[in-house]
Design a protein that fits this description.
18% strand, three-stranded mixed sheet, 138 residues, two-stranded antiparallel sheet, alpha+beta
Length: 138
C-alpha cells in the first residue's frame, strides 16, 4: 500500500541519503567491486525514485552505465568498468586518458581524440596501437 501512495514503508525506517562515495577512491570507481555485495544495478527510473524518497549525500551522482552486446550470439551485459585509452599526438609527449566503452566505434575514438586536442571536426584521424604507454595516437 505504501508503495502505491509514493511513500515507501514507515517514515521512521528511512535509511537516510544515498551515499555511493565508498565505491570510489581518488575520484575513480574502485577496481574489482562485486555486484550484489558492494553495489546493485538499478534502472534509471528506480534510481530516480530512491533519490526522490531518500535524497543523496553531497557530491553524489548516479554511476550511469550502459548495456552492451558481447560475443557472437549478442548476449548483453552491463559494462561497469569502461576501458581507459591513452590518447596522444604523434610526438606522444602529452598523454590524455579517456574512458571508452568496448562497444564504441573507432570513429567515436577519433572524434574524442580530435576534441581532446582541439582539432577541427573535419580533420583526418589515424589510430595506432603501441606496446608502450602511448596507447592510441592521433
Amino acid at each position: 500500500d505504501d508503495m502505491q501512495s509514493g511513500v515507501p514503508g514507515d517514515l521512521n525506517d528511512n535509511p537516510g541519503p544515498i551515499d555511493n562515495s565508498p565505491l570510489f577512491s581518488n575520484g575513480e570507481l574502485k577496481p574489482g567491486l562485486v555486484e550484489k555485495r558492494e553495489y546493485n544495478l538499478l534502472p534509471g527510473k528506480a534510481w530516480n525514485e530512491l533519490v526522490s524518497w531518500y535524497g543523496v549525500s553531497d557530491a553524489v551522482s548516479p554511476i550511469e552505465r550502459q548495456v552492451i552486446k558481447v560475443g557472437t550470439l549478442g548476449s548483453t551485459l552491463v559494462e561497469v568498468y569502461r576501458q581507459e585509452l591513452k590518447l596522444c599526438e604523434t610526438d606522444c609527449e602529452t598523454l590524455v586518458g579517456r574512458d571508452f566503452s568496448r562497444s564504441d566505434t573507432l570513429t567515436h575514438v577519433c572524434d574524442v581524440a580530435k576534441e581532446a586536442f582541439q582539432y577541427p571536426e573535419d580533420s583526418k584521424c589515424r589510430l595506432w596501437t603501441f606496446p608502450n604507454d602511448c596507447g592510441v595516437v592521433t
